[in-house]
Amino acid sequence: MWRLWKSRNAFYYRGEDYEPSSVVTKVQEDFDEWNSRDDLEEKDVNTNPVIREEERWTPPPHNWLKCNSDGAWDRTKDHCGVGWVLRNHLGDVVWMGGRRLPKGRSPIETEDETLRWAISTMVRLNYNKLIFETDCIELVQALQERDSRPSIHSFVQDMHHLLAKLGEVQVVFRGRKSNANVDRIAKEAPSFENNAPVLFSIMPSWIKSFVEVEKSIV
Predict the structure, then answer these.
(1) Count of Cβ atoms closer than 10 Å to residue 109 Cβ
(2) Within 10 Å of residue 210's Cβ, how many Cβ atoms?
(3) Do 80 and 171 belong together in one domain?
(4) Sheet of strand 93-102: strand arrangement
(5) pLDDT tens, position by position, 48-73
(6) How far apart are the first and last CA of the chain?
(7) Could you tell me which PANTHER family the record lists for this protein (predicted)?
(8) What residues make up the domain containing 148?
(9) How many domains does the chain contain in total?
């Protein structure tokens, strides 16, 4: 009916006339297009949201610890924030750390500083069997390839030296959605009074809800 109405208006207002066979063809095209649209809408309605494995935090194996790290860099501010959280296979927080730092030259330098601090802290605490997770894929690639860009070369070399002291260790990339806890710490850190590192063995109130959400899926 819509195509017939459009053909009628074209003839009435613009003097355009169409052969009946042409109108029939257009009607069929409109019908096919409408059906395909219905199919798409039906797919949208029937598609349930799925949390992909890489989009949520997962616990480490038994007897291992997992340390997630993240940095918050803002070109409009004088300071950046870095943070990490160490958890066991039950999702319990063992330690977490936050620190305000003078803003680095780029986001990747902030991520480097964050991971290096996390690794050095684990060395001092004498932990073993560790998985370090970061959402900075460039950093993970630099550690794997040992051929990093000049601006982060010294960071990478330091991290290799520190990692060698930890025994069984992995450094892996995970998506940002699996790093929500440390993202919250990193964004809170610029509000700290000074640049001194802060370690928490008891969760502060502003992070507790984030940890509990991720722990509930363990």
Answers:
(1) 18
(2) 18
(3) yes
(4) 169-173, 130-134, 65-72, 79-87, 93-102, 198-200
(5) 333 344 578 899 999 999 999 999 98
(6) 56
(7) BNAC02G40300D PROTEIN, POLYNUCLEOTIDYL TRANSFERASE, RIBONUCLEASE H-LIKE SUPERFAMILY PROTEIN
(8) 55-215
(9) 2
- Cβ 102 vs Cβ 78: under 8 Å: yes
Q: What is the pLDDT of residues 125-156, one digit of tens each?
A: 999 999 999 999 988 988 887 666 777 788 88
The CATH number for 63's domain is: 3.30.420.10
Comparing CA positions, the residue from 155, 200, 161 lying closest to residue 182 is 200
Angle (CA) 151 164 172, round 5° = 65
Same domain, 35 and 66: no
SS3 at position 119: helix
Within this chain, do residues 22 and 60 fall inside the same structural domain, yes or no?
no
Could you identify the residue written with the tokens 């949390």?
A: 51
Are 142 and 42 part of one and the same domain? no
Distance CA(22)–CA(110), nearest Å, equals 64
Judge contact between 97 and 198, C-beta under 8 A: yes
pTM for the complete prediction? 0.70
Q: Which residues pair with 99 in a beta bridge?
A: 82
**Cβ atoms < 10 Å from Cβ of 68:** 26
Residue 164 neighbours by CB under 8 Å, 6+ apart: none
Distances (CA, A) of 98 to 113, 168, 218: 12, 25, 24
CA distance 70 to 207: 14
